[in-house]
Every structure is written in C-alpha cells, then in structure tokens.
C-alpha cells in the first residue's frame, strides 16, 4: 500500500479540455473523496458518504448507458436536457455541492495550520451545503462537525502508509494536497458556471 493521496486519483490529474471535464476521471477522483471521509472514521459522516456514493452512482449509471454522449460532464448535461427525468444532472449537481463542501473545509485547514478540523468543516458547511438543508439535516451535520478528529490525527493518517512503509514528509503532503485542492477548485468553478448558464441548478462555491 501507500500513503492515502497516492492511493486515490487526484483532481489535478482529471483531464479538463475545451470540450469539458472528463467524466470517468472525475468520477474516479470523486470516489477518492468518499475514501477520504471514511478515513475520518467518524460514524456521524455516514450520511455524507452515502450521499456522495449515491450521486456518483447516478452519474456513472448515465455514463454506462450513454457513454458516447457522456464523455465529458458538459456533454452529459447537454444530452440529458431533452429527457423528462434528468437523474444524472441532479445527481451531479448534488455531487458538486458535496465536493464544494469538501474543498472549502480542507482549504480552510490548509490555509491555517492552527485551525482544528471541526472549525474548518463547519465553515465549509456553512458556505456551501447548509443553504440547501432543512432543520433535521442541519442537525445531523452539526453533530458530524463536532465529531471531527483532531487535526494532527487526520494529517497523520494522510501521511502514513497502512502497510508500514515510510511516512510522507509534511512538506510533500502539503504540496500534494494543495495540488489536489487546486484541481478540484478548477473543476468546481467551471461546473458552477455551466450549471448557471444552462439553468440546471445552483452550486454554491
């Protein structure tokens, strides 16, 4: 095995061309976010994991049945517009919202070496997903934020090799995580604009 960021696809490695965001590569990187939340080992994040997995499945199902028409996220949205039920379009919207939450939280953690994860994830939630949630769901997320692991424990897990190999130096971890975040930010900014222009929904970011 290897340290966490070496076991998942980085958003920095997702192809983004004039034609759009490569769908399969994007989904692979999004699955890495699911693994990231599982790394937190926080049962309170189960609804987040379930939501991410469910929306990844919706987009992947569309790709599997309409691969040529869904090679990029933009193509997928365009080709599903004529259909009465736009399951993948809605699933992708919620997936992007969940990724925006993740980005905001981890970006806050990277920007301030002293901030604890509970505070970083709370600020990320308030800037993104909170707007769309009812009172009950807000309570679930509030519980999850409070149950975040300590910052040091989380970063130690990111740097460690479960197989007992050498730990990644913190400087290298920061470089890789920042590249991961920059790649995700690029995709989120692009897709937020696409959703607004096509009037497919809103992605707060």
Number of strands: 2
Work out the helix count. 8
Measure the end-to-end span. Answer: 34 Å
> Any idea what the CATH architecture is?
Orthogonal Bundle
Task: Fill in the CATH topology.
Answer: Glycolipid transfer protein, GLTP
Strand order of the largest sheet: 1-2
The major β-sheet equals:
2 strands, antiparallel
CATH superfamily assignment? Answer: Glycolipid transfer protein
The structural domain count equals 1
Strand content: under 5%
Give the % helix: 55-70%
Rounded to an integer, what's the Rg over CA atoms? 17 Å
**Uncertain spans:** none
Features:
globular; mainly alpha; Glycolipid transfer protein, GLTP; two-stranded antiparallel ribbon; 205 residues
Question: What's a quick, concise take on this entry?
Answer:
This protein has 205 residues and is an all-alpha fold. The chain has helices at residues 23-39, 46-65, 73-80, 87-111, 117-127, 135-146, 151-159, 170-198; strands at 16-17, 20-21.
């Amino acid at each position: 095995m290897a340290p966490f960021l070496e076991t998942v696809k980085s958003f920095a490695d997702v192809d983004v061309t004039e034609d759009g965001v490569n769908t399969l590569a994007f989904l692979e990187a999004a699955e890495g976010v699911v693994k990231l939340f599982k790394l937190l080992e926080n049962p309170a994040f189960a609804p987040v994991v379930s939501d991410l997995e469910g929306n990844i499945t919706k987009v992947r199902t569309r790709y599997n049945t309409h691969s040529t028409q869904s090679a990029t996220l933009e193509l997928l949205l365009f080709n599903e517009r004529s259909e009465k039920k736009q399951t993948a379009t809605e699933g992708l919207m919620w997936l992007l919202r969940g990724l925006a939450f993740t980005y905001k939280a981890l970006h806050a953690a990277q920007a301030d070496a002293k901030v604890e994860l509970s505070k970083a994830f709370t600020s990320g939630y308030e800037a993104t997903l909170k707007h769309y949630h009812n009172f009950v769901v807000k309570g679930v997320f509030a519980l999850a934020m409070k149950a975040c692991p300590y910052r040091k424990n989380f970063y130690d897990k990111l740097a460690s090799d479960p197989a007992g190999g050498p730990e990644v130096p913190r400087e290298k971890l920061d470089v890789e995580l920042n590249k991961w975040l920059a790649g995700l930010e690029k995709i989120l900014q692009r897709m937020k604009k696409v959703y607004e222009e096509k009037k497919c929904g809103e992605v707060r970011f």
